[in-house]
Specification:
Layout: E1 8-10, H1 15-23, E2 29-30, H2 45-61, E3 68-78, E4 81-83, H3 89-99, E5 103-114, E6 118-128, H4 133-141, E7 162-166, H5 169-173, H6 177-186
Parallel strand pairs: 1-2, 1-3
Antiparallel strand pairs: 3-4, 3-5, 5-6, 6-7
Helix pairs in contact: 3-4
């Protein structure tokens, strides 16, 4: 009898990450990781997202005797400055105004722990269209930006802000699918096209 495939455990409460995995037909268990997401002094965006993805994966792996834990973290970077999640609509509007008409980077790290430790990082360039202040205020007031790095959701109402993407669309949403499937496949999880 062949060895049993490991259960995939998603260390995230993000509906966007859950939807991306579910759309592929992957079976997974949700066990969110709660930890301090503060940026450390002098920490680069790359180091920051890698640390958070790895720490989330390790934290949740410590709660499970078996399985492969998948974690991710995404941040937005403008001219070297990390833009986290805005605290309120006013901060969201200011953040969006700084991005309007400019190109920024979205950096997403994905990590696995438990059965196999590994990580990948993906950087994507996103260019915002020039935008009127009224449009930014309207979008900020919808509430959608409040739990999103950089204050926008590409897959939601915030899609109207984005003029161009160079790189991984799914990484901007929160989970780079090419890299994620490679990591979980290497960790023994059955991919949608593989026989049971």
């Amino acid at each position: 009898m062949p060895p049993q495939r490991p259960v995939l455990i998603l260390a995230s409460a993000s509906p966007r990450r859950q939807a991306l995995l579910a759309e592929l037909g992957l079976a997974f268990v949700i066990d969110p990781a709660e930890l301090d997401e503060s940026i450390r002094p002098g920490e680069s965006a790359l180091t920051y997202v890698r640390r958070l993805a790895r720490d989330k994966a390790e934290l949740v792996a410590g709660r499970h005797a078996e399985g492969l834990v998948l974690a991710a973290d995404t941040t937005v970077v403008l001219e070297g400055r990390i833009l986290g999640k805005p605290a309120d609509a006013r901060e969201a509007e200011a953040m969006l105004a700084s991005l309007a008409g400019r190109t920024h980077r979205v950096v997403t790290a994905v990590a696995t722990a438990g059965r196999r430790r590994a990580e990948e990082t993906v950087e994507t360039e996103v260019t915002f269209a020039p935008c009127r202040r009224e449009a930014l205020a309207w979008y900020a007031a919808t509430g959608e930006p409040l739990d999103k790095a950089g204050g926008y959701a590409l897959q939601g109402k915030g899609g109207f802000l984005v003029e161009r993407i160079r790189g991984s669309h799914s990484a901007v949403v929160g989970l780079p699918l090419v890299e994620t499937l490679a990591l979980i496949g290497a960790g023994g999880v059955r991919l949608p096209w593989e026989a049971p």
